[in-house]
Each structure stands twice: as C-alpha cells, then as structure tokens.
From TrEMBL:
Its cofactor is Co(2+); Zn(2+); Fe(2+); a divalent metal cation. One of its GO terms (molecular function) is metal ion binding. Pathway: Carbohydrate degradation. Substrate binds at S8, H66, G142, F143, G144, G145, D175, G176, G177, G197, S198. It is an enzyme of class 5 (isomerase). It catalyses: D-ribulose 5-phosphate = D-xylulose 5-phosphate. Its EC number is 5.1.3.1. Pfam families: Ribul_P_3_epim. HAMAP family: RPE (MF_02227). This is Ribulose-phosphate 3-epimerase. Catalyzes the reversible epimerization of D-ribulose 5-phosphate to D-xylulose 5-phosphate. One of its GO terms (biological process) is pentose-phosphate shunt.
C-alpha cells in the first residue's frame, strides 16, 4: 500500500505562500501539514490562524494542522474555522486529552494526538480507539530539517501492535526527518502517513519528490 503524503508547509517559502500551495495542489500530496508553534510548548514560533486561513484559501488538499502549543483547547474552533480537516494536539500538552479529542470531533474535524520522541506509545492505550491518528514525532518538535531519530521504528511497531490489539483503525503519521531512506522502513513497521518538510521543499523538484515518496515500497 502506498503511503499518504503530508508535505509540511513549514519548509516552504512564506513570501510566496500561494505559489507553494499551488505546487502542492498539483502534486500527489494527500494533505498539507501545517505546523503551529507557540514559543512555549516548543522553543520556536511559526505562524498562527491568519496564515492558516491564507493557506486554506488556496489549498485543494485537506489541511492537517499540528498544534505544538499549550492550552490547545482554547484554539480548536479557530483552527477549524481557518480550514483544518485534521487537528492534532500534543499528548504532553493535554491534561484532559479525552475531553480535547471529543471537542475536536464535535467541531467536525478528525482528531490526532502527537507524541514526543520520549513519550511511550503505551500511554495512548486508553484513548487509541477514540482518535483518528497518532502523529508520532521522529524529531523533537520545534524545527524543520532535523535528523530522524532511529528509535522511531520500534515505536511504530509497538503502536501498530497496540492499534491491532484494540481493534482500532487509527492511522500512524510520522513527523520529522522523513526521507526516501527511512520511509520504506517506516512503512514496513506500520506507518500510514508520512510528513515531509525539508526533504520536499529543499529538493529541486518538489512534485517529483512527492511522487517518489508516494511510490516507495516496503522493505
Ligand atoms: C517539527 C514539525 C515537523 C517539521 C517536519 O516540529 O512538526 O512537521 O516541519 O519537517 P522536516 O521534514 O524538515 O523534519
Ligand atoms: Zn508537524
């Protein structure tokens, strides 16, 4: 099965956001991954609601919004109104995660839970059936262009086992440092969705790079 591809707009040229979104529109990308950083949960600030609206205005692909922010509950409705189809919140930022997931669903969006590299997948055991995807961080969140953390493969396998054991249909998304070398191994371990930022936008031909990611085979 080919992976779903979610290029991260964080790595795009923000001065030409319309052009960059149109490149993704004409590619085989399945989603546009939108990274929101608040300078509190992560040590970087990206952009917020108006820029998400601007991306949505030109996008022909669904927006997969990754909230790297504290108190995400306060902003769910605003991001949904800005065009988010999928809203992922961080496990580490949500003391009442089940309630937050319910709130995302009540807005008509798909609910994702992102986990940092040190967070064990087993902590999702009692919420896995209620969520649409797990966004597994394969770098420490906050910056694009970082090196992929190798421990991710075993986390993906363990998460896949957990999903199957619970009879859930939750998708596994991998976020950070994804490229053509690690993508086949990630798929074999059980990944469904691959986020790719710098690998796509730093390449000479982003459309062709997305095509290559889409065509990867399991190893
Ligand atoms: C990291 C972000 C990622 C990032 C991926 O904090 O959540 O989505 O943009 O970028 P690359 O593919 O360059 O690691
Ligand atoms: Zn992300």
């Amino acid at each position: 099965m080919s992976p779903l591809i979610a290029p991260s707009i964080l790595a795009a040229d923000f001065a030409n956001i319309q052009k960059e979104v149109e490149i993704l529109n004409s590619s085989e990308a399945d989603y546009i991954h939108v990274d929101i950083m608040d300078g509190v949960f992560v040590p970087n600030i990206s952009f917020g609601i108006p820029v998400t609206e601007a991306i949505h205005k030109h996008a022909k692909k669904p927006l997969d919004v990754h909230l790297m922010i504290v108190n995400p509950d306060n902003y769910l409705e605003a991001f949904r109104n800005a065009g988010a189809e999928v809203i992922s919140v961080h496990y580490e930022a949500c003391p009442h995660l089940h309630r937050t997931v319910q709130a995302i669903h009540s807005l008509g969006a798909k609910a994702g839970v992102a986990i940092n590299p040190h967070t064990p997948v087993e902590l999702l055991s009692d919420v896995i059936q209620d969520i649409d995807l797990v966004c597994m961080m394969s770098v420490n969140p906050g910056f694009g262009g970082q090196k992929f953390i190798e421990n991710t493969y075993s986390k993906v396998s363990r998460l896949k086992d957990l999903i199957l054991a619970k009879g859930a249909v939750t998708k596994i998304e991998i976020d950070g440092g994804v490229n053509l070398i690690n993508a086949p191994k990630l798929m074999t371990a059980g990944a469904d969705i691959l986020v790719a930022g710098s690998f796509v936008f730093s390449s000479d031909d982003p459309i062709q790079t997305i095509h290559q990611l889409k065509r990867i085979e399991m190893v």
